[in-house]
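Figure caption, in words: inputs first, then the predicted bound structure.
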Amino acid sequence: MSNELAIYAAHSEDSRGRVYKDDGSEYRNEYQRDRDRVIHSSAFRRLEYKTQVFVNHEGDMFRTRLTHSIEVAQIGRTIARALNVNEDLTEAICLAHDLGHTPFGHAGQDALNACMQNFGGFEHNLQSLRIVDILEQRYAIFPGLNLTFETREGILKHCSKNNALKLDDIGERFLKNEKPGLEAQIANIADEIAYNNHDIDDGLRAGLLNIEALRECEIVNIQYENVKSKWQELDDSQLRHEIIRRMINAVVSDLIETSKALIDTVKPDNIDDVRKCGKSLIRMSEKTESMHKKLKKYLMDNLYRHERVNSMAEKAKETIDFLFNAYIDKPDLLTNEIQKEIKLNAGKEDKLKVARLIADYVAGMTDRFAFSEYERIRNYKG
Ligand code: MG
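Bound structure (magnesium ion present):
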């Protein structure tokens, strides 16, 4: 296998660049710099205490958004390297893809979106972009992390046409129905592969799923039989891990081979050909894709809607809703910094801006900070 980047990969020296010009680095290419900026951001560190499916304090062994993002990057890098596309860029996108998530996973995002309904809504994907473009304040000469176009393109996985119109050139592809580069396509699918598999692991460990019942999903059963034909006497943890690592390996191998064949047929000459070719070139075979979808549905019905997950989701919604409305009613409950920002940039009358500042604050909270704010405000006698 050649280590040279394919012609259709994203090449650092041909990047569309950053919004604010800054000096290059002697030792690192542009996408390495993007990855490093993501890793050093405070939004990245906060992922440690944000829920993926299980709330952080339910147990130390469960995935958090941070460990999820690292697993996505691991899978993404394997695929990128096998296809000779840009591993650094893939890693940067994978590590940044969930930065905009609220506390409490999807329940938190739904609750915040409902609170923001009259103020332009809330969407975690747009929020990830907002974090790297604006909210991280670390540099003297520009806002945000000032990432390259290609990393930002990958972070903005989906976007409505309405929202795309409000963005700079990063929104254009949604209006033209174009695809992002292969590195972004890889990050997207690595996300799905990672959570399908680690949610099985967490779900089994939490006792919310059961391996015998899971065999209803062909993709699980194939590897279950493979493992059982080799070893009959494994304990639960060994069996679980032997099955899951085979599942990841089988799906990733299938994805690499199928994508290679597809790229060979389309023969893109450069990254713009990839963007304009009208279809995703990173794909699983039809058979694997259909098994993967069935597993996703199984997890939706049996794990994400499990009563224990649901009751946590209810508590999450209540917490987000309470916090948002408390801050709207009484801005003096907010930090001095945000109060100052409201005075400077919005003024109490500009409700849209005030609501957005509050949404940014709530979205940035970790699960445990949101709970402690909830308690603090409930006991507040102001
Ligand atoms: Mg994710």
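Residues 12-308 form a domain with the Hypothetical protein af1432 fold (CATH 1.10.3210.10).
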